From TrEMBL:
Full protein name: 2,3-bisphosphoglycerate-dependent phosphoglycerate mutase
Subunit structure: Homodimer.
Pathway annotation from the record: Carbohydrate degradation; glycolysis; pyruvate from D-glyceraldehyde 3-phosphate: step 3/5
Role, per record: Catalyzes the interconversion of 2-phosphoglycerate and 3-phosphoglycerate.
Length: 206
C-alpha cells in the first residue's frame, strides 16, 4: 500500500445554479456551494484524515472549497498549490451562456455533442480529451509522487478536470468517462498501491 488521494469537486457555483456554462470564468460559490464545501470538510474530519499537501485550480470556487476543507480538518495553513492545469474545461464560445439558450442557437444535438463527447470541443474551447492533456502530466509530475511516498493528498478541482484524472486512475475509456457524474462537494477517497494502481475507492456521498 502507498498513499491516499482525495478528490473533491467544488461546491455548487453561482453559475451552476443559473444553468450557465462556466468553464474558466472565475465565479464564486453559491450559498448552497459554501454549505456543500463545509460539509465535505466535516465528512473528511470525521474520517480523521490529515493531509500532507493540497492542490487546487486557479479558480476561486475550487480554492474556496479547498480552504473550507482544510479549515474543517484543522489544517488552515497547509501548503496549497494552485495551478491552471486543474482548471475546469474551457467551454470557449459557450462560456457564460445559458445552456437552454445555447441549445436554441446551435441545436439540442450539437450542444449535447459538445457537452458529452470525449474529443469534440465547442468553438474556441476544449474537449475532455484536451482537458486531460493538461491534467495528466500535472498529476504524474506534481501530485502522484506525494501519494507514492505514502502521503495523503487533497485535490479540490472541477467536474471535468476530475473526470480526466479519474479516467487515468481507473483506466476508464473516453466514451464511458463522459457519463460519469460527480456531485458537487462530494469527496472521493482513493487508496493507491505502490505501483500507482487503485487499491480502493470510497465516495462520501449523502
Amino acid at each position: 500500500m502507498s498513499g491516499t488521494l482525495v478528490l473533491v469537486r467544488h461546491g455548487q457555483s453561482e453559475w451552476n445554479l443559473k444553468n450557465l456554462f462556466t468553464g474558466w470564468r472565475d465565479v464564486d460559490l453559491s450559498e448552497l456551494g459554501h454549505e456543500e464545501a463545509k460539509a465535505a470538510g466535516q465528512k473528511l474530519k470525521e474520517r480523521g484524515l490529515k493531509f500532507d499537501i493540497a492542490f487546487t485550480s486557479a479558480l476561486k470556487r475550487a480554492q474556496k472549497t479547498c480552504q473550507y476543507i482544510l479549515d474543517a480538518v484543522g489544517q488552515e495553513n497547509l501548503q496549497t498549490i494552485r495551478d491552471a492545469a486543474l482548471n475546469e474545461r474551457d467551454y470557449g464560445d459557450l462560456n457564460g451562456l445559458n445552456k437552454d439558450d445555447a441549445r436554441a442557437k446551435w441545436g439540442e444535438e450539437q450542444v449535447h455533442i459538445w457537452r458529452r463527447s470525449y474529443d469534440t470541443p465547442p468553438p474556441g474551447g476544449e474537449s475532455l480529451k484536451d482537458t486531460g492533456a493538461r491534467v495528466w502530466p500535472y498529476y504524474l509530475h506534481d501530485m502522484q509522487p506525494h501519494v507514492l511516498r505514502g502521503g495523503t493528498v487533497l485535490v479540490a478541482a472541477h467536474g471535468n478536470s476530475l473526470r480526466a484524472l479519474i479516467m487515468a486512475l481507473e483506466g476508464i475509456s473516453g466514451p464511458e468517462i463522459v457519463k460519469l457524474e460527480l456531485g458537487t462537494g462530494v469527496p472521493i477517497i482513493y487508496m493507491l498501491n505502490a505501483d500507482s494502481t487503485v487499491a480502493s475507492k470510497e465516495v462520501l456521498a449523502g
